[in-house]
Structure formats: structure tokens, C-alpha cells
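SEQUENCE-TO-STRUCTURE ENTRY
===========================
Question of interest: how does this chain fold, as expressed in C-alpha cells?
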Amino acid sequence: MLGQAPMKNSLLLLLMSVCFFGKSQSYSSNRISLVSFVNPQTTGGIGTDQRKYSGCWGWYQTSTNKEYAIVGSSTGTYFLDISNPGFPNQCDYVPGKSGCTWREIKSYQNYCYVVSDDASPNRFQIIDMQYLPDSVHVVHDGTTYFERGHTIWIDKDKMYIGSETKLGGSHESMTIYSLATPSNPAFLRSLKTDFPSISYAHDMYVNNDTVFASCGNQGLYIFKYNSVGNTFTQLGSYINYSSGSAYNHASALTADKKTLVFCDEVPNFLPIRIVDVQNLANIIPQSTVIPYPNSTPHNPYVIGSRWAIISCYEDGLNIYDITNPASPVFAGFFDTHPQGGFSASSYNGYRGNWGAYPFFPSGLILAVDMQNGVFLLDASQTFNQPIGFTENAAMETNFQIYPSPACGHINIMSAKNVDATVKISNVLGEIVLTDDLTIFGKQKINVAQLPNGAYIVNLKTKNGSLTKKIIINNN
């Protein structure tokens, strides 16, 4: 079902969609609504696949009670005031290396730290955000600390850089810096000093100095940074978990520290993995999840100990209830990339939803699509569901019925081969269309003969039924 923005914002959203796509664009979704959409980069640095955006982050300014979306683009970093979420306002922009595929961002206090791993020449940036919403001030833009970093994580007052490259080309698998003086990081330690066998840390999730390091083809390793002695020690590992090659890409930990969710990214179509990490010396697999048969999960995020939010490239943003890690439930989705992926019945590679930020005090979710732009999403319909909603949620998320408004036809999509009966009723309860279908992928139903108005679509399978309200506008 099409995520609906508030009425007062619908014209703005339509105009922004028209500017980018050349026509109004529909986004299939379930339990996640579109609040607003912007596409700030209109020229320069656009890749051959129309890639314009990469990593993102969020920042809450306590002194003004404002929220900001920080978006990495192929030319620099955008700072957007989203305190009025229906009308995001660009406050400032900091240029960086142009033509970048990678840009990642984290914050500490009022400082923003931006790394990029694109080819030399490049640079590391530190940006002071205290003057927002007026402007930001760049306090470092150079190679003094390092030139390139693939990813960045900040835990308390320590900054971790994954795959750091110095000016001149020397490479570190992972480094750590003190942010005791936030505008002037102080180098502490290189992982390579203690563990030279780890050649590459693609990303890391760090909690209280415990580092879950995604080491690419080497797998997942867990290290502890010891402030006393300034050393790393190993606490555990999780390797050789895939029957084929798997590139351990990124992970996220539940608040109770019992469960880790991670994505492998390469090759395509690998599952999301959920493991028990209560005993780091004996990590136990819990479950694997495949959003759609050809989805490529990229970056995971976890809210509390219940919700896993996964950026899945061309299949957009997906939310899972992992209350029971051994049996996760697909709880909601928003497809930021309708031109590819399951909704389009075709996959074009590593495009679509790069990342998200689901930690704003307001509950908004920031999602960035590499080609399409910046989405602000409302997932309250998902997050407000009580534990135990799993049966209905399974039906609602195994099938998609869209668009609404519909013109000429509606689409019903299923990730599995399913026999179903579809009945469409008008507002008086009269059945105006019925059909028996075998659905796999996208199935079109012709509604061109129906008068304009509101209708109820009922989809029934042997496993349950699903009812959706749609609007038909055949003008």
C-alpha cells in the first residue's frame, strides 16, 4: 500500500517527486508512511548508475530541541533541519571529494565526523554543528590524521575507523582515537599492532569498548579495547558460517546485549543473520531471514531489543520484530527504490537504500536511497503493535497490494508461489470483482472498469486473509 503523507504536505511531496522522476512516484509500503522526501543534490558528482547518496546520520540539538538529518552525497555532506518533518530545510552543505561512492558519518557532542574511502586525493572532515540551524563550521578538512576511512563508529569518547588509509597509502585494518578533545582526535591504537592477521575491518559496532568487527571475507571477530595498557584482546569470533563465501559487512547489537544482527552484502542475495552473543566464546546461530528471494541486505540497525531495521538496497527499508530471535517476524517495509528490486521484478545490483537512522527522539526514521534521495518515514504503525501481532503481520508483509490511488490496475505481489482468491468490494459491501489467482512476483488486476472511489481488497490464502483499503482513480 502506498505510504500516505499528511494532507498539508501532499502537494510538496508531489512536486518533489515530479522534479526528480518526471512524474508522481508511488512507493509501496506496509506499516511505514512517507512523511517527506527531498533530493538536495541536483548536479555534479553523479555516478554512471545515477548514484548520488551514501551514508547518513542524525543529530539532536538539545539547546534548540531540533533534529537534523546529516546526509552523505557524492559531492559532500548535507545538513537538514527536520524539526518540521513535513518540510525539511537545508541549513548548510560542506563540500568534500567529488564523485564519491562512499561517505560515512557519525557524531560526538556537537561535532560531526565524516570519512570517505574513495581513491586519493581524499580527506577526513570534522564539522562543528553548534551553530545550527544557522550554519556549520568546518574545523578540519585534510589528511593530518588519515586520508581515507571506509567506516566510522563512535563509542563514548572514542572514535573507531574501519579500513584506514594514511596519506601515501599505508593501510590499517582498524584504528582508534580519543575524542577527549573532540576537535582534535588523538591516536590511541591500531588493531594491526595486536592482531596483524586481521587484514581488513569493513565496519564495527562498538559497545562499551567491546568491538564487533565485520572483517569482510575473514568473518566476524569480537575484540575488547583495554584502556589500561592500551591494547586489543580477542573475545571471540564467528567465521565459516556460510556454505559459500560471505563478506561480513555490518552488525548491530540489541540493548540487552544478547543478540547480534548482521548482514554479509557480498555476493548478492545472502540472508540477514541473527546470532546469540551472550557467550562471546560460543556464538550460537538463531535464525536467517531473506526479505525477498533476491534481496541484498546492506546495513542493520536495532532499536531496543525488539526491532531490527535493515537497509536492503533495491528492496528498501525492512523492519523485523526479533522479540524471539529464533523466529523473527517481517513487521513493515518501505520501498525507497521502486525502479528496481522485488517490486519491479528485476534487480540491477547494488543500488537503492544504502542506510538509515532510526534513533531520533521523535521516532522518525531517516532513510537514504543512493539514486532517489532522502526519505523521512513514520513507522509508528509498526512500532505500536503489541507483541503477539505476528500472525496478521505475516500476511500483511508477505503480500503487497498497491498502488493507491490506482489507475487502470492494482498490483498484488508475493515472495512465494501462492494460490489466492481476490475479492474487491465497494463501500456498500457489494463485491464488484472476484478472481482466483496463482501469485508469484507481481500480479496485475485490471480495475479500469470500476468507477472512481474507495474499495476494499480482500486477499485470501490457505494461511489466512488480508484486507486493504485502496482508492481507484481511473482519470
